[in-house]
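Box S2. Input/output pair 1.
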Amino acid sequence: MSEALIVGIVRQALEMAVLVSAPMLAAGLIAGVAVSVFQTVTSIQDNVLAFIPRAAAIFVAFALTFPWMLRLVSGFAEALIRRLPDLVR
């Protein structure tokens, strides 16, 4: 197995990880900014107020995008398993 092939597989795996985590990270970022703006405007500095909406947004994003993420990761794993005989040589 050549080094270029290994680097290509690792690159695809990292791209997959970034692509799968992006919706949850974006939801957490948007919720965090919204809560920060709300806290700044109202002068409320409570850690629980900052955590709960962010956690809820991440959970909702995960629940909504889970079927898409599962198809994406399953397709990647299936393609990797299909290429396994070529990778062993």
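Box S3. Input/output pair 2.
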Amino acid sequence: MSKWLKEHGLFLVNLGLFVVFLGGMILTGAANYNEEQSAHGQPTVSVIGFLGTGEFVEATFENWESEFLQMGMYVVLTIFLFQKGSSESKPIGPEAAQDQDPRDTFAKEDTPGPVKQGGLALKVYEHSLSILLFALFLASFILHAFGGAAAYNDEQAVHGGETVTVLQYAGTSRFWFESFQNWQSEFLAVAVLVGASVYLREKGSPESKPVDEPHSETGA
């Protein structure tokens, strides 16, 4: 068991932190929601009931969409673009291992099934990471619109305004402000990591070059 935990520790710890922070978001979000409801003379909800509100759905998927967009774009952009000296970039000169065509290699016993099968299965598999990330982005984007519309309509009902459909809400400045305010921060974080990894180091991390490696050395 200890070997298995060591081999999967990075995934498990990040998944655990996600659960902890999501739980914190739900508890504090429900408390904040009920405070606002009480202030406007509206009924409060339980923690479980809060999960079905537009405010929770909007807040959750508004953030998820930016994360998956950032990661999907990063995966695709690193195929074509380089940053001299950055550990986040492929080497500029020689062909990287990621660029090798699997059709030109011999299949081994532990080679992934789609590679052995070839054809359409391989074509999809060799882009499966970006497909997953962009599919999650699209799903989160749609759920953000649904949750945002529900939250907006709740506010309109309290103030006697007109409600909107999901498509109408997706065309509002509020919806795009919510998206852009998250997207810009995600790409700023990526730019800082790409640029800082040229000159700064973190011993023991695969996101950093070896501490004694020259600034001009690109990739791993």
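Caption for Box S3: The chain has two domains: 1-51, 57-220. The radius of gyration is 23 Å.
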